Amino acid sequence: MDSADKFFDFACRLLAKRDYFTEELRQKITAKGATAEETANVIEKLNRFNYLDDSKVLRKYITEIIAKGKGINYLKQKLYEKGCRSLLSSYNLSEFYTFEEECSTAQKALLKIHENEKEKLAAKLVSRGFSVSAALEAVKKI
In sequence order, what DSSP letters do the residues of 78-111 get, joined into one string? Predict the structure, then answer.
């Protein structure tokens, strides 16, 4: 097995366990010792077989973020930490996580916060990654 096959096999084993963003997978392949050219070839081959789909992974990831009761700023921070900065500019995240969804998630998060002052409620929502406008809207509706 040559090195290109070895790295492709490694990537396929990773993808068999869970979905990865393209950039995450690129980092893992490089960390395994692949050159930039080998990594690019593996990513290209994975794309040819339709094994990578950033928009599908993003939708799934947003579902997890919503289930955790977190907002769009939390999502942006996590994507940044994962090294997926390009997703932040490639996709309009508000198409995937709408303002209405964020407000609804914020309202559900409010049920778990034991606080009476509206300013403190909004601040706690913002600290959980909600946008200021979604936090204020959610607090206004209670």
Answer: HHHHTT-HHHHHHS-HHHHS-HHHHHHHHHHHHT
Q: 81, 87 in Cβ contact below 8 A?
A: no
This prediction has a pTM of 0.86
Residues of the chain above pLDDT 90, percent: 80
- Rounded Cα distance between 16 and 51, Å, is 10
Of the pLDDT bands very low, low, confident and very high (cuts 50, 70, 90), residue 18 is very high
Domains for the chain: give ranges and CATH numbers. Answer: 1-52 (1.10.10.10), 54-142 (no CATH)
pLDDT of residue 4: 79
Mark 82-114 as b/e (b = at least 16 C-beta within 10 Å): eebeebeeeeebeebbeeebbbbbbbebbeeee
